[in-house]
Structure formats: C-alpha cells, structure tokens
Design goal:
The complex is a heterodimer of chains A (907) and B (113). Chain A is an alpha+beta fold and 907 residues long. The radius of gyration of chain A is 38 Å and the shape is globular. Chain B has a three-stranded antiparallel β-sheet with strand order 1-3-2. In chain B, α2 crosses α5 (84-112). With 113 residues, chain B is α+β, with helices and mostly antiparallel strands. Chain B has one domain: Orthogonal Bundle (Arc Repressor Mutant, subunit A), CATH 1.10.10.10. Chain B is built from five helices and three strands; from the N terminus they run ααβααββα. Chain B starts with a helix and ends with a helix. Chain B is globular, with a radius of gyration of 16 Å. The chains are: A alpha+beta (907), B alpha+beta (113).
C-alpha cells in the first residue's frame, strides 16, 4: 500500500525536491554575493560547487525506484504517437494481429468449454466415474471377467455398503427414459399427455454430486427404501417452462407413465446431471424403475447390468487408492458369492474382474469425446496462423524501421542506450499487439458464437470469456508482441551510427541485413502456409472419402418415424398387432413407396449385440459369436434399399406362430459359413440351447450402421412381428417416400394417430440428416483448417508482395540503368521473379518436411489417405506456388514498366 | 545514471555523514551541505548536489523524515530529522565503519614499518 501511495504522490515528491534545490542555489548565491562577488560570478561558482543540476535531480528521483515505470509511460506515450502518425500501417498490422489473436482466443474458448470445463458442482475434482464411455443402456448375461463398467443392483448395493474410501458412492441408471407426463391439477384428464425425460438415480446421487435444490429438497437415502413414496426432483428448465415457475410446485403430483409422483424439489438451473447434455426433466429413485420404464423390474435381477456408479473421493484419497480398494471388494464379493462352485476358469475370471476409475470432474461428455482431438489440432493450426501473422507484422515493422533509421541513429548519437532503444521498440510492438488483441477479442466473440452453433447447438456447455481465456489471450499477445518486435528492434539496436546518419533518410547500410531478415520471415510464412494447406487437403480428402464411402443402403427418400408403443401401454404379446396395422396403413399412404419397421436405423447411435449359437457348429463356444441383432419388419430390404443377395426377405407371412425366421448379412456369412450357403441353417440367441430357434431365410448385402471408419460386423435381422420379448416394444417406423421425405411427415403423424390415437410419435427425421450429422466433426475440422489455410496463404502472399515490391522500389535506380543499357522488359521481369522463386523454393524446401511431420500427428483423423499422400502435397504446393507467383508478378510488371529516364533521375 | 559522488567516497559514506549530522540537530538541505563541508575542513571533494540523491534515498528508507518549516533566514525550507530507525542504522554503520577503518589502519601501519 505504501508503495502505491508513494507512486501516486511522486509528483509532489519531485516538486518538493525541485523547490528544495532551487532554494539551495538561491541561498548560496545570496551568500556569495553578500561576501562581495558579483551576481554572475556567484551564480557560476554556485553551479560549479553544486554540479550538474539536471543530473542531480535525475539521480535523486531514481532513488525512489520509479524510473522503469516512468520510462514505460514515456515509451507508451511515444508509441501511441508513432502509431497514430502511421494510421495506415497501424490499421493493417492491427487487422492482421486481430485475426491471429482472435482465432486463437476463439479456439481456446471452445477448447476451454469443451475439454477443460468442469461440471457445475461442488469440488468437481473429487468426482470419479467408473466409465466415461458414451454408450448407454443395459445388458444381461454373465458377470464380466474384465473391467466392470455396468453393475447389477446386487453388486452396486454391495459396493455402496462397503467401507470404501469414498465420501459417498452413488448409482444411476445408465441412460435416460422417456415418460409421459400429466399434471394432477390440469383441467381435464383427457389433456394430451406430454413427454419428458426421466433419470433414475440412487438417493445419495445429489449429495454425491454436491448439488443442492433451489426449492424443496433433493433425493435422500430414505427414498431408496422399497416401500417409500414415489417422489421426483424436477429440473429447473422443466419447472420454468412446463410448470411456469410455479412457486407452489413442490408438493404437487405429476403422473409419470400413469403413476403418481410427488415433486419434492427443484434442481438448480446450472445442473444437468453427470452427462454433459440437456438436463433430464425429472430425477427419481431407482426403486421406481418398473413404473418409469414400464418393464419388469431389474431390482431383483442379478444378471441385468443396468447401473453406473459415480463416487466422491474421501479427502486426501487418490483415484488409484480408491480403484484398488473397490477392485478388491468386488473380487471378494464375486468369490464369496460363487463359493464352492468356483471352477478354475471362473477363479481366473474373478481375478481379472476389476474397476477402472476415471476423472469424473468433467462428467460424461459426448462433445469432449468427439471434439477433443480436433480441437487439439485446431489449437496447433491457429498457433501457426498467429506465428505467421507475427512474421507478417514483423516484416511490416522492418520496412518501417528503414524509414525510422534516422530517428534511431540520432537517438543513439545523443547517448541513448541501446537497451533503452530496444525496450522502446518492444514497448511499441507490444502496444500494437494489445490493440490487435482488443480487436481480436471482438473477432473471437463473433467467431465463437458462429463456431459453437456449428458444433454444439444442443449442449448445456456455456461459452464465456473467463479468467483462463483472458490470461491465455494476454499471454499470447505478449509473446506475439515480443516475437514480431524482436527482429526490427535488434536490427535497429545494431545500426551503424555514422554510416546511417551519412546515408540520410534512405539508410543504405544495414539494408542488406534487413533484407535478409525480411526474406527469412517470408520463407517462414510460405513454409507455414504450406503446412496448413497440406493439412486442409488431407482433412478435406478424408471427408470426401468418408462421404463417398458406400453405406450399403440408399439413404435418399427415407423418413424415420419414432413411436413409443410402451407409453401407449402395449405389451410384448400384443404389439405385433399394432405393427401390422401400422405397416398396412402406412404402406398405402400416398407419397409412401414402401414401409417397414425396425428396432433402430443406421447411424442412430443405437446398437444391440447378442451372443448366438449356430446349430451344428459346436466348435465355436457361444461367447465367441457376438453379432449385432436388429429386429425388422416386412419389406425391410426394399425400404432401406439394401440388396438381397440370397433367399427371401422377411414378409407379412412371418407372424407369431409361424416358424421364426431371420436374415443375415454378408459379414455373417463370411465369418460363420465361409464358402457355404447359409440358407436353411438355424441359430439361437442368448445362452446355448441348441434348439435352432431361428432359420436363416435371406442374406443381405453388408450395410454400415455405425462409424464408417469401422469394419462392418456380422448381423442378424430377425422378424419383429414374431418377437415377444421386451425388445419388441422398441420398434420404429421407416418409410421410403416418392418425394422429399420431410414433406409428408405431417401426413404420417396423422396416419399413425388413425392407427392408434394413444401412440405417441416421438420424432420424425430424414435418414439423410441423421447420416450427415455423423460427419459433423470431420466436416467442421476440414472446413476450419481449410479456412485457416486460406487465411495463411492470403497473409503470406500479401507479405511476399510487400517485400518484393520494396525490393523493386529500392532497385528502381538499378533497373533504370539496366534498361538504359539495353535490358528488355522480359529480362527485368525475370530478374524480379527470380527473387520470388528463390523465396518460394526455400519456403517449400522447409515446409514440405514440416508438413510431413504435422500430417503424421493428425494421422488418426485421416480416412482413406495416408499422412504422406502425394496428391494432397501436390495440390497444396500448386495452389501455393500459383498464388505466390501471382503476388510476385505484380511488382515485377511494375518494375518492367519503369521508364529509365525517370528511374535515373530518381536519385 | 552516473553518480559522480561515488567516485570520491566509498558508497554509503555520504549517507553516514548526513545521518551523523542530523543526529546532533535537525537541519535543512543547504545548512546540511554547509555543515558537512565546514566540519570536514573542505577535505572531502563533494559536489553539493550529490547531497540530494542521498537525502532522497534516506527518505525512501525512512531513516530520516522531512517537514516544511521556517529557516533562521526566514525562508520556507524542508527540515530533515533523524528517525529512530535512522539512529539505530547510524550506530550500526559507524561501528562497522570503525572496524573497517581499524583494519585498514593496521594494514597501512604494517607496510610502513
């Protein structure tokens, strides 16, 4: 504080010092005149005795230690004056820097929000997840003999009761459920029911997450008891929008899937659960799984793995310690449960059972999963753009330093220290960088909004210029200010005084060094541009390959219609009737070519795998045969545009009671019936029964249902109309239309309502859209790298143009002489172009190995092109060379147009 | 950044003399300069001006404090006064200087004999 007080009162301190010194001199002169000297003599003697007044004052002021700060202010004032005097130069430099710094801030803001941001809960760093895998849902079967990610009620309850090093350990349903909602006080019971999402969680879920309600209470462990009352916590968004922020909402009844739940509290607005996406509308205790999911209870089943766990570590405990303790508890449980029956094989299975804890502070984030790597690449890309921008502005400063040579020489000649001079120049460049950063923040603000709408429109992730982002921007601003300021500052500091003063304004000496420095900066820009252009080419070509990849079905003119028979109270036994009715009604709808049903559609994110056993193939144990299993309706192959290679497709004749049939894909045949005809063979789903439940009646051409980068798995397509398991309730409608599919969505909804007015249509979308959105990441990455590559190319070529142009104007005289001596236009053109080409070739020679190294780093993002893809390199180089030659040609033509008479008079 | 006063005096000597003088009585700058000059019998070639940077350093270190007052010639002057920290500092400086001087004297004496 004293420090600050002194800083602000230093003017007064200095004034007092001045007064005191003046007084001293006055007194001395008075004394000396009194002793008989003339006033002139007295003054001279006093000054002699006192010493240099200015130096004394300066030294005395230095005692306070404010010199550096005052110098800084002085430098800043001078810098502002210089920048204002060269408004054009300043504007160009600020624009270039704003682009560079803005791009970095924008990408970093998104990186921060998507990759670094923590869940909005208390002390997120202590949260651990048992998996951060994106997949949701449950599976049934034997306990895993490797990593446990999903848990049965039994194991989850056991672990949660153990004295493990967690402050608390909570369980939650892996995935959310769609429920119908009717509010108790709505005017009539016949109100159309609304749909909402519900998440089943253990009573201590909220306390483990570290979240409090803003009204009422959250769930508590008492709510986990088997006969406790049905209660639910509503999300803030649901309360605001659907309950209209009703202050008396707590205590009200909501009928969820027909069961009455009391709303006991409202969650805080920022909370969205452990998954980074739209918040579920309700949270309720796990015990209400049968009511919420409308299926037989999972609570007592020991073979249904439907729960995920999240823990809050006890203070001072590391993730590794908790992981070891939990694994030990799990193995002990498994060993004691199976007791004496434990075979040698199971023993080793138990020994291999373990948990792996992962950092839960960021939650489970699809965005982070998808964009983490592309964002790392983009950070590198924008860093290169900034480097290039710095080289560019460095060149501008160099050319301006030439015109400032006289000023600098004079300052040095007057005894200014070189250190102070360099400091002054660096202050100027940092000032310039700060101006650039200010405009850059505006650029970033705009860019972030555009970009984020592109990648994450439906995410609760919030973008804000927080402290971290600002610190990042300030740091890169300082670094870039120093980077682009260094070259001109040091070349100025090295200036040869006498020579440059003699040479006058156009300082001829030092020029050689400056020119070579300008040239190396251009070479660096060309090299960086090449790296970015190659990267853009590789990513663009990967994207093209992905888009061109044959999927095995015809995605155009397909409408996907989601329905929920479960919510309309259908049971596995009677749903086939509904499906049949829908099929018959929709097949004849105008605008519909064919209709079918299926458990899920390609690229929907859903997947269902089962172990099967093939009758007669005893050499393969059941767990080795894992296939994707999709229930489908009649006319499936025709509607999907999938080619039927052998046999027949499933039709209306395949009804309950008739022999069960299934189609398989090519991959299935290659794996299990290599070189044979599979038709007529039989298989079972689930545990080996050897009853041959399903007969293979058809073979479909392979179709990609998931990530196009993956291999197509063996698949079976049993008839949905014959299925009487719970799975049969999750069918959806697929239509092949005669015109634009989206245009008939309303007609389809109406037809569904005619088939059953209670059946909710949950979603309509075109297959085209569903597939396009799966390549979002690749598209955004390719577009952005392409954009930055273009920007880099533009900057580099403007820089090249500037340097060549300067070279031409410096050599105007020489050119005039040459022309006077008989050189023709073409000779001059070639002479100037040679300069450009030398720079280009050097840039390429450095850029190609760099690009090669960079391409290897992004190899995992490439598809169908190698990191050393020659075509990408050639395309990039050709673009770069042609644009650069064009930029070099302009000054060359101007040189060729020089009139020798004028040129010779030029100086 | 040249400090001419330090060419003739070892660092801190001037400050020590200022503190010693102020210990006897508070003085203003001019009087202080005249006093040091007089008592040293003009033996020390000090530029009077160098007194002021020294005073500023002492002010910053809070070894002396300054107040505006009226001089004997009826002028408004800044009068310097030793603080308690200044007094202790002076004692330390003097004793360490005396030890140093003793050492130097011994060395010089031995060379003469």
């Amino acid at each position: 504080m004293k420090w600050l007080k002194q800083l602000f009162s230093r003017r007064r301190l200095y004034d007092e010092l001045d007064q005191e010194i003046a007084l001293h001199l006055e007194q001395r002169i008075e004394e000396l005149t009194a002793s008989g000297m003339t006033e002139r003599e007295a003054t001279a003697a006093t000054r002699r005795e006192f010493g240099n007044v200015a130096v004394v004052k300066e030294t005395a002021r230095d005692a306070w230690g404010w010199r550096w700060l005052e110098d800084l202010f002085g430098d800043l004032r001078f810098g502002v004056r210089i920048l204002r005097k060269n408004a054009g130069f300043t504007a160009v430099a600020v624009l270039i820097l704003a682009l560079g710094i803005g791009a970095n801030t924008a990408i970093f803001t998104i990186f921060d929000a998507v990759v670094l941001e923590s869940l909005p809960v208390r002390e997120p760093s202590r949260l651990v997840l048992f998996t951060d895998d994106l997949s949701e849902g449950s599976y049934s079967g034997d306990p895993p003999s490797n990593r446990w990610e999903a848990f049965s009620t039994e194991v989850s309850d056991y672990l949660r009761r153990q004295p493990l090093p967690f402050e608390s350990l909570a369980a939650f349903r892996s995935g959310e459920d769609a429920v119908s909602v009717r509010l108790a006080d709505s005017p009539s019971a016949s109100d159309p029911t609304e749909q909402a999402t519900a998440h089943l969680v253990s009573g201590n879920y909220f306390s483990t997450m570290g979240v409090d309600s803003i009204m009422g209470r959250t769930l508590s462990p008492e709510d986990d008891r088997l006969n406790s009352l049905p209660v639910a916590v509503a999300s803030y968004g649901y309360w605001k929008q659907r309950l209209h922020g009703d202050p008396t909402a707590v205590g009200k009844i909501a009928y969820l899937n027909g069961s009455a739940f009391t709303i006991v509290g409202i969650a805080p607005p920022e909370f969205f659960g452990e998954r980074v996406r739209h918040s579920p509308d309700f949270w309720m205790p796990l015990t209400f799984q049968p009511q919420i999911e409308l299926r037989p209870s999972y609570l007592e089943r020991t073979d249904e793995y439907w729960l995920s766990l999240i823990g809050r570590l006890a203070p001072g405990v590391t993730r590794a310690q908790a992981q070891a303790a939990t694994t030990a508890a799990l193995q002990q449980f498994l060993a004691s449960k199976e007791g004496a029956e434990l075979t040698e094989a199971r023993k080793s299975g138990v020994a291999r059972s373990h948990v792996e804890l992962v950092d839960g502070g960021g939650g489970i984030s699809g965005l982070r999963f998808k964009y983490s790597e592309p964002l790392h690449i983009l950070l590198a890309v924008v860093a290169m753009v900034l480097l290039l921008a710095c080289a560019n502005v460095g060149n501008l400063l160099l050319s301006r330093a030439a015109t400032r040579q006289t000023e600098i020489s004079i300052r040095l000649a007057l005894g200014g220290s070189r250190f102070r001079l360099i400091r002054q120049l660096l202050t100027e460049s940092i000032l310039l960088a700060m101006l650039g950063a200010t405009c850059g923040l505006l650029v970033a603000h705009w860019a972030v909004n555009v970009l984020f709408a592109l990648v994450a429109a439906n995410s609760p992730v919030k973008l804000h210029l927080n402290a971290l982002v600002l610190v990042f921007t300030i740091v890169i601003t300082m670094i870039s200010g120093i980077l682009f300021g260094l070259a001109p500052a040091f070349s100025a500091g090295r200036a040869d005084l006498a020579m440059s003063l003699k040479a006058g304004v156009r300082g001829l000496t030092g020029d050689h060094k400056k020119v070579s420095m300008a040239h190396s900066l251009i070479v660096a820009q060309i090299a960086i541009s090449l790296v970015l252009l190659v990267g853009a080419n590789l990513l663009g070509r990967s994207l093209l390959n992905l888009e061109k990849q044959p999927l095995g079905f015809d995605q155009s003119h397909v409408l996907l219609v989601g329905v929920s028979p479960r919510m309309a109270n259908y049971k596995p036994e009677n749903v086939a009737g509904l499906y049949r009715k829908l099929y018959e009604r929709l097949s004849t709808l105008p605008g519909v070519r064919t209709a079918t049903l299926a458990r899920y559609s390609p690229m929907s994110g859903s997947s269902s795998t089962n172990n099967i056993s093939i009758q007669g193939q005893v050499d393969k144990p059941a767990e080795d045969i894992s296939v994707e299993n999709i229930l489908v309706g009649p006319s499936y192959a025709e509607t999907m545009g999938m080619m039927l290679l052998q046999g027949r497709e499933i039709g209306l004749q395949d009804v309950p009671g008739a022999p069960k049939v299934a189609m398989v894909n090519e991959a299935f045949v290659h794996t299990y019936f290599p070189g044979k005809i599979p038709l007529g063979h039989r298989f079972d789903v689930g545990k080996p029964k050897d009853t041959g439940e399903y007969e293979i009646v058809g073979v479909l051409r392979d179709a990609q249902f998931h990530d196009v980068k993956e291999k197509i798995k063996p698949m079976v397509f049993p008839a949905i109309l014959q299925d009487t398991s719970q799975t049969a309730l999750s069918g959806g409608i697929i239509l092949r239309t005669t015109s634009e599919p989206a245009s008939i969505a309303a007609t389809v909804r109406q037809a569904v309502a005619e088939a059953d007015p209670n059946l909710p249509v949950t979603d309509t979308r075109t297959l085209n859209n569903q597939i396009a959105s799966t390549l979002d990441v690749e598209r955004v990455a390719a577009e952005l790298v392409g954009f930055f590559g273009g920007l880099a190319l533009l900057l580099a070529c403007v820089g090249l143009y500037g340097v060549v142009m300067q070279g031409v104007s410096r050599r105007t005289n020489e050119i005039g002489v040459r022309m006077a001596l008989g050189a023709r236009d073409r000779d001059i053109l070639c002479m100037v172009l040679r300069n450009t080409i030398t720079l280009l070739v050097t840039g390429l020679a450095i850029g190609i190995p760099l690009a090669f190294a960079a391409a290897r780093l992004v190899k995992s993002e490439l598809y169908g092109v190698g990191a050393a893809d020659a075509l990408s390199f050639i395309i990039a180089a050709v673009i770069l060379v042609s644009v650069a030659i064009f930029a070099g040609l302009l000054p060359a033509r101007r040189a060729a147009a020089v009139d020798p008479a004028i040129a010779l008079r030029f100086e | 950044m040249k400090k001419p006063e330090q060419r003739d005096l070892f660092p801190r000597a001037l400050e020590m003399m200022v503190l010693r003088t102020l210990k006897r009585q508070p003085l203003h700058g001019y009087a202080l300069a005249q006093h040091i000059k007089r008592t040293s019998n003009d033996l020390l070639q000090i530029e009077e001006g160098s007194l002021y940077p020294a005073l500023q350093r002492l002010l910053k270190a809070e070894l002396v404090k300054a107040e505006w007052g009226i001089s004997s010639t009826n002028r408004r002057v800044r009068i310097y006064q030793l603080t308690t920290t200044g007094a202790t500092h002076l004692e330390r400086e003097v004793s360490s200087f005396e030890r140093m001087l003793e050492g130097i004297t011994r060395v010089l004496a031995r060379r003469e004999s």
